[in-house]
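Q: What changes when phosphoenolpyruvate is included in the input?
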Amino acid sequence: MIVVMAAGSSDSELAAVRERIESKGLKAQINLGVERTVVGVVGSIPPDFKDEVELLEGVSDVVMISKPYKLASREFHPDDTIIKVGSAVIGGPSPVIMAGPCSVEDEEQMVSTAKAVKKAGATVLRGGAFKPRTSPYSFRGMGEDGLKLLNLAKQETGLPIITEVMATEDVDTVAKYADILQIGARNMQNYNLLDAVGELGKPVMVKRGLAASYEEWLLAAEYVMASGNEEVILCERGIRGFESFTRFTLDVAAVPVVQRLSHLPIVADPSHSTGKWYLVTPVALASVAAGAHGLLIEVHPNPDIAKCDGPQSLTFENFDMLMQQVDAIASVRKQPVAAN
Ligand code: PEP
Ligand code: MN
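A: The predicted holo structure follows.
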């Protein structure tokens, strides 16, 4: 349920609405919008409560939200959510490019990649230290040592870090180093983990599950938001189809669909969806043309010897070419890539 306050309603009227909501054991999430103040009511709404709130002073309208996700819905929050991390403005008119290796391997690999992607125009550095791998025999990441190398690359370049957290018990450790915490596709429905990152004061990027519907994905974002964290970014990283030539199928329509259903920024990942380096640029361009707020791109100094996801990783040179083309498409949309 959403309570829309009347234009010119007072602070004390808003406080009375909040008190009434909390007196029923419900949570009130206040959104002071540009044009109007809206209060989201979270919890199980008792019968007749809508009629009761409608009569309170300063209330203009009470609307039952039709979607199962509330805080993530466009109905609750008509303006786009904008998340600022370092010099990156995620959710604004310019696509933000997050780039770096699949996994952190060593200092030289991490620092050289950070410098190269920054030079080409990326404003967020990626790198996995805790890696979800299909096979238990694959390289599973350097853990906290990897986070320290990410931090070193951050010191060298000033780029903020996005990195994955896989387990609830690692949230505090990862949050010590990360500027954005990534929830991987395989953990999109790990509800305890979503709760845990919801309690942090740091942005969280929720990747779409391998077979998740839009509703399930937005409900995963809702978990993070319901725990108090409103800084959520969504990432379309491809879903499972019948085609095995590509690793997954990037659902480009997810970009405008999510923008219609939600106010949260939506980023696309052409690396994990295609699995092939030569498909990354075309799919990145399609995503930006469709309006993506950003891209997550895997880049490695020498993809042939990468410990993880080499076949889909771009060389520095290819990343530079991708950036120039992305900039051209973004300019057509009158949304050039954010300057760093
Ligand atoms: C990643 O971005 O490092 C990753 C493992 O992606 P996904 O969770 O989408 O497979
Ligand atoms: Mn990867």
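Observations recorded in class: Residues 102, 128, 132, 164, 184-186, 207, 237, 272 surround phosphoenolpyruvate (ligand 1) (CB under 6 Å).
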